[in-house]
Write a structure and sequence with these properties.
The chain has 2 domains: 82-429, 7 Propeller (Methylamine Dehydrogenase, Chain H); 437-482 and 489-607, Potassium Channel Kv1.1, Chain A (2-Layer Sandwich), CATH 3.30.710. The protein is built from 14 helices and 32 strands. The strands form 8 sheets. The chain has a 6-stranded mixed β-sheet. A 4-stranded antiparallel β-sheet has the order 9-10-11-12, with no helix packed on it. A 4-stranded antiparallel β-sheet has the order 13-14-15-16, with no helix packed on it. It is an alpha+beta fold and 612 residues long. Helix content is 20%, strand content 30%. This is Regulator of chromosome condensation (RCC1) and BTB (POZ) domain containing protein 1. It holds the Pfam family WD40_RLD. RCC repeats lie at residues 122-173, 175-227, 228-280, 281-332, 333-384.
Length: 612
């Protein structure tokens, strides 16, 4: 029974339904379940390719009491829009404390070189190149350090979008609309063409409206209100404002015509085109249509909204516009695409444009999310099973059919493969409120509270978990068998290795890392050789190489010879020869075993170390 709902796992709202897991091949989940007496157990759940689930109930362990605080009920599932901002290079400029403060973020700009983020305290910061004053910091200076956008302090952000200038639109939870940045075509909606150094409140025709969503094209803007009305303004050379003319629109104007008395639920902008989804699943498009990005069956521009008859009979939930192509997702999880296809961004297997919607098949999987951005020629989608696909212009390559990635989200696709590496939407930042399995194991090393075994070395105890040792090391798999005395012991004495060395070895089994000075790494190298731990042996050699000095060089050479580490032996020998005069003055050199010393002198002589 699952503690969170006290219902069978397959019926718990915290778990994905079984049908959502189908189509996944050979996945293994660690599941935390609770027995009737509230004791936490860790079980492995195997999901086969046909979606059937098998549970291994044979592995309860006291380690679960730690995992209980670290894992959600079944498996870590990212919420929609959750992302790890460290995948965007710009955020590597920030320290851990600043990263931890971020709740929402957006990377934009001609080269992905500007960023805006919101903190958990609803403060807004910006940093980067500041082209066209798009950071909104009140000046035109670029900055690699975040600057607070003072006039947005305390405003809870719900939607953000950017243009190519770039200009920026931001909607708050209170329904307010702010704009700043490039304004050469009145895309800020303030009735002027003056650039906005700081966010300005856009009120014209919106004073009594609650803005819930914003979208930007190259140089035009759109806003969606809580009552389903669409407003547009800015550059209008192709009719993208939907006003019925090609005159620029200096202030927000309601897009009416076919949308009069209709309720829109979503908006999206291409470079110079606009799209809207209605509450009945219909899709309307207007603006530039030279590549067929409006999906109307022709390539003529539209000055007012026109319904896509190619989607008649379908209920569209989400629309996403690329530079000059469009994606649509229906309520049945089907994906449709149309428009430009120079880079394969439609996913049809060719590079031919399509003037009307065509269905895109993604491994016969149900699609739950689509992604595109007006500044890129790339597309991405996520399936119900959590698989993420990409196609189009991916790092300069034309991918003409959906390609399975091993990324966690469509946001990650744009971070890793988009040109430029921008965000297709504002993302909520994922913070590790819970620990991953690896982090949990690291935390529980040498923990008396959860351990079921301890080693005694030099009179000190090291607390471990027998199951972890058996999983990670062949030596312990052999040791903890019924015919070994150690299998019944609660304390195992170790006298052949020192405490620092043995503790480092056990910690390695929990963390895959070693943190020892070179001198102690020699002892760990001995242990790794004895236990046939080849990876640990390589790590020790690496530590020794990085820590070699004139003073310890000969001792390290001796250890390399003793433990048959040929690569390390050659490295230490070369170091000693290169620093021969200094090395021969050290105590370690003269205290060395006579045979090893003779061998070194003969070998160094053959290398020409004693030539005048």
């Amino acid at each position: 029974m699952c503690k969170c709902m006290c219902t069978p796992m397959s019926q718990c709202d915290s778990h994905p339904p079984l049908h959502q897991l189908s189509g996944i091949s050979s996945w293994v989940y660690l599941c935390l379940v609770y027995s009737c007496d509230e004791l936490p157990l860790v079980r492995a759940v195997f999901v086969s390719s046909d979606g059937s689930i098998k549970s291994d109930e044979s592995a309860p362990t006291v380690l679960a009491s730690s995992l209980a605080t670290a894992l959600p009920c079944v498996v870590s599932v990212r919420s929609p829009g959750m992302a790890d901002v460290s995948k965007w290079p710009l955020f590597t400029l920030l320290g851990p404390q600043e990263i931890a403060s971020i709740s929402l973020a957006c990377v934009f700009g001609a080269s992905g070189n500007e960023a805006i983020y919101c903190t958990h305290e609803d403060e807004v910061y910006a940093f980067g190149l500041n082209c066209s004053n798009c950071l909104g910091t009140g000046d035109s200076q670029s900055s690699i350090f975040p600057k607070k956008v003072e006039c947005l302090s305390g405003k809870k952000v719900v939607s953000l979008s950017y243009g190519s200038g770039p200009h920026v639109l931001l909607a708050t939870a209170g329904g307010e609309l702010f704009a700043w940045g490039h304004n050469g075509y009145s895309q800020l909606g303030n009735g002027t063409t003056n650039q906005g150094l700081s966010p300005i409140l856009v009120t014209s025709n919106l004073a009594s409206k609650e803005v819930t969503e914003v979208a930007c094209g190259s140089h035009h803007s759109m806003a969606l209100t809580s009552d389903g009305e669409v407003f547009a303004w800015g550059y209008n050379n192709c009719g993208q404002v939907g006003s019925g003319s090609t005159a620029n629109q200096p202030t927000p104007r309601r897009v009416s015509s076919c949308l009069q008395n209709r309720v829109a639920t979503g908006i999206s902008c291409g470079q110079t085109s606009s799209m809207a989804v209605l509450d009945n699943g219909e899709v309307y498009g207007w603006g530039y249509n030279g590549s067929g990005q409006l999906g109307l069956g022709n390539n003529g521009n539209q000055l007012t909204p026109c319904r896509l008859v190619g989607l008649q009979g379908l209920c569209v939930l989400q629309i996403a516009c690329g530079y000059s192509h469009t994606l649509a997702l229906t309520d049945q999880g089907c994906l449709y695409a149309w428009g430009a296809n120079t880079y394969g961004q439609l996913g049809t297997g060719s590079k031919s444009n399509h003037l009307s919607p065509v269905q895109v098949i993604v491994e016969k999987s149900r699609i739950v999310e689509i992604a595109a951005c007006h500044s890129t020629h790339m597309s991405a989608a996520k399936t119900q099973g959590g698989q993420v696909y990409m196609w189009g212009q991916c790092r300069g390559q034309a991918v003409v059919v959906p390609q399975l990635t091993y990324l966690n989200s469509t946001d990650d696709v744009f971070a890793c493969f988009a040109m430029p590496a921008v965000m297709w939407r504002m993302v909520a930042v994922e913070h590790d409120d819970y620990l991953t399995v690896a982090q949990c194991l690291k935390k529980e090393f040498d923990s008396p509270e959860t351990s079921d075994l301890k080693f005694s070395v030099d009179g000190k105890h090291i607390y471990v978990h027998k199951a972890v040792l058996k999983m990670r090391c062949q030596h312990f798999r052999s040791m903890f068998q019924s015919h070994w005395d150690e299998d019944l012991k609660e304390v195992i004495e170790v006298d052949q290795f020192s405490y620092p060395v043995y503790r480092a070895f056990l910690q390695f089994l929990y963390t895959d890392s070693v943190d020892l000075p070179p001198e102690d790494a020699i002892g760990l190298l001995d242990l790794a050789t004895s236990y046939c731990e080849n990876r640990l042996k390589r790590l020790c050699q690496h530590i020794i190489k990085r820590g070699i000095t004139v003073e310890n060089a000969f001792s390290l050479l001796s250890a390399a010879v003793r433990y048959d580490a040929e690569d390390l032996e050659e490295f230490c020998f070369r170091f000693c020869v290169n620093h021969l005069t200094a090395v021969t003055q050290t105590t370690a050199f003269w205290q060395m075993d006579g045979n090893l010393l003779k061998d070194f002198i003969c070998r160094a002589g053959r290398c020409g170390a004693f030539k005048n």
